Amino acid sequence: MISSAFPRLVSRAGARAQPFAKARFSSSSSPNPSTPFFASKTAVASSTLLAAGSLAWYNHLYGAGFGSLLPEASANSAAENGMHPTTLPFEHYGPFETFNHASIRRGYQVYREVCSACHSLDRIAWRNLVGVSHTVDEVKAMAEEVEYTDGPNDEGEMFQRPGKLADYMPAPYPNEEAARAGNGGGLPPDLSLIVKARHGGADYIYSLLTGYCDPPAGVKLAEGMNYNPYFPGGGIAMARVLFDGLVEYEDGTPATTSQMAKDVTVFLNWAAEPEHDQRKKMGLQALIILSTLTAISVYVKRFKWTYLKNRKIVYDPPKPARHGPL
Amino acid sequence: MAIENQQTAAAPAQQESTSFFSSVMEFFVPTAHAEAPEESEEPAEEGGDEPAEEEEEEEEEPEDPAPAIREECEQKQCAEHVHHFKHCQEKVEAGNGFPGEDCVEEFFHVLHCVDACAAPKVFKKLA
User: Could you tell me if residue A155 is inside a domain?
Assistant: First the structure.
């Protein structure tokens, strides 16, 4: 019904609009008695007044300023966000750079002697270290120092055995509750993926480890908390652990605070991204393959088009007829 | 001695990278090396014990280069930020700040400047 009636309605509306259009553009200055209310000056003034009035009333109720009309966004303070770490010149940051494997080896030592007292490394097995930082025999010897529960045996009982390459790194606490109870309520996070899990990555870990300092004036810390500007909120349950000469590196590198922080950061970066070196190697391989294919395709195109590009089309016009039309 | 040991630690990684074409082939047809790298790793352990003598010589505590470098940055490039920070510290500690005022923002400005200034210099001194 409507669809069939629509053309008629439109034509009728057009017919009705015509006299108005004529009146609008007529040169006579006398007001037309048929002008609708919304075209009058009164309507303009009153609607403007309504708009301004509603804005004023809104500002009176919800606070002045244009900002009160926008969805509320409470910006965190700088302290709540934590200090953003600077990009540090780690050796593995370039697009084609590998990890510093000597640093990974030292970093493992720092993790083993310092961090592993509280932090687990659940996703790294002993075998992962082989060929990365240690030799097979070294890793086997290290794994054998740890006792693992295995079983059940023939009598259906669990038994203790020395670790194997396939075992995962031993955790310092059996469960989360034990970890919290041992650390004043704070849970030391698992470090397997910590570099990927924190904003700022390796820069953050290094900055956090070296960044402990006295709190600036006016900062109130909860009991048992330590101040670290890089930690969001500033108050961190972990105290500063790295001090000069804490470990003794087997390769003779001076074990300064910065050195240990860097080494353990590189180690944790490796733990989070064990595929890192291989990934960059594959990236370079992909680059070589793609650039080679591009070169070949350019060559083939030119080869195939040679005869077309070198072709010369000559138009040989027919000779004029010997006998013109008579 | 230290350098020698680093090289041996990194040796297995180098061994994997053979010729380019074999690694391109490896890309398409993966091969597993089970026990291969083990042989060349034997000498690595011999070198492992030797640096112990060196460590005995340098018994004194190693000194961290970072604090001195940061101190220098604070005095030179970041003097202005430090000035503002100290001003805030004095004001807040004297109790002249508004209620709840702290100097975190000023402190972060100092840190931002010092970190950027010190990071390359510190890392140059690290192994």
Answer: no
- Which of B1, B4, B6, B86 to mutate to test binding with chain A, by most A CBs within 10 Å of its CB? B6
Per-residue exposure over A273-302, b if at least 16 CB sit within 10 Å of its own CB, e if not:
bbeebeebbeeeeeeeeeeeeeeeeeeeee
Q: Which of A258, A266, A280, A292 is most worth mutating to test chain B (most B CB atoms within 10 A of its CB)?
A: A258
Q: State how many domains chain B has.
A: 2
Rounded mean pLDDT, A174-201? 95
- Each residue's pLDDT, cut to its tens digit, for chain B (127 residues) gives 444 444 444 444 444 445 677 776 777 777 666 555 444 444 444 444 444 444 444 457 889 999 999 999 999 999 999 999 999 999 999 999 888 899 999 999 999 999 999 999 999 999 8
**Distance in Å from the first CA to the final CA of chain A:** 74
CATH number, position A107: 1.10.760.10
Q: Are residues A283 and A297 in the same domain?
A: yes
Radius of gyration, alpha carbons of chain A: 39
- B38 lies in which domain range? 2-57
A291 interfaces chain B, CB cutoff of 8 Å? no
The alpha-carbon gap from A306 to the nearest alpha carbon of chain B, in Å, equals: 32
* Contacts of residue A125, Cβ cutoff 8 Å, sequence gap at least 6: A165, A166, A167, A168, A169
ipTM value? 0.71
Three-state SS for A172-232 is CCCCHHHHHHHCCCCCCCCCCCHHHHCCCHHHHHHHHHHCCCCCCCCCCCCCCCEECCCCC
Q: Do B80 and B104 fall into the same domain? A: yes
Amino acid, res. A245: G
What is the mean predicted confidence (pLDDT) over A105-133? Answer: 96
Do A250 and A300 sit in the same domain of this protein?
no
Question: Domain of A288?
Answer: 276-306
The verdict on A78 touching B (C-beta cutoff 8 Å) is: yes
CB contact set of A160 (below 8 Å; sequence gap of 6+): A147, A148, A149, A150
- Domain count across chain A: 2
Mean confidence (pLDDT) of chain A? 88
Q: Both A267 and A283 in a single domain?
A: no
Query: Residue B75 is part of a domain; what is its CATH number?
Result: 1.10.287
Same-domain pairing of B81 and B36: no
